[in-house]
Amino acid sequence: MELPPRRNFEEVNDMAKLTIPEDELMRPGHMGCLGCGATQAMRFVLKAAGRKTILSIPACCWAVMPGVWPNTCLEVPELYTPFETTGASISGIKAALEVLGKDDVNVIGFAGDGGTADIGLQALSGVADRNDDVLYIMYDNEAYMNTGIQRSGSTPIGAWTTTTPVGTTQAWEKSPKKSVADIMIAHRIPYVATASAAYPEDLIRKVNKALSIKGTKFIQIFAPCPTGWKMDPGLTVKIGKEAISSRAFSLYEVEGGAIKINMKPKKTPLKEYLFKQGRFKHMPDYLINELESDLDSKWEELLFKEECSQKMLKKK
What we know:
Helices cover 38% and strands 13% of the residues. The chain has a single domain (21-315), classed as 3-Layer(aba) Sandwich (Rossmann fold). The radius of gyration is 20 Å and the shape is globular. By secondary structure, it is an alpha/beta fold. An eight-stranded mixed sheet has the order 2-1-3-4-6-5-7-8, sandwiched between helices.
């Protein structure tokens, strides 16, 4: 059988330019774990935002992964802040830039789910209330991974963490995952979106859109954590895609109060997604069925909201 001709480097490079920016602002040598979804998220966010960007990073995995000072794998300025202050920090950076007359610098808060859904929620609410012209990104790996895999408000039902142990106590996570995106929608800020490190084109498009809009913007990025999720590091992208198809996580955006679902894939069994991760291996079938039913109901609710949004736009 005759093989197709091999593409040369220039041809492959030209193809890549069609979808994802070529410029790399995250150098090799980060200190993250193998297969870290949060490193993928940062790489794609910086490709979208460009070099005129200032990052504010609280205590989280990304406070460690750039490297030990004065070394860093990121080619943009970084300001490290306490766990709870990301929202206040990006407001202050933006105010300082305005005093200096610099309106062409992107100010981005980049925080984990623990520092957003829990510890940093008050400061995030404050920046949304002021509607400061900043972008807040929550990379969601569903626990406090940097400090030892403790549960967060974003930890889903049934998940093992070091503070929701599995065994004779059956103390796995019982509370539903907190929807920070819904909380931000309720603040009526100009733009809210969810994204996934497994779908870089969608993620980059949403970051670009957010940075083109005046006011406070919020993006929640689904970022699998092989270490905390007890999974094969080579499955990060596959797990990210199965989260969407199983409806464990949904991709949508809200602009001007109108909801648009960005991906409606064919439904796949939730169990296939869960059992690729050791943190869910203990879950009994009845609990998986209950969780799947709940996620299906939330999906139907999201579809209904989208339908109502489109009707609202037509009336305008």
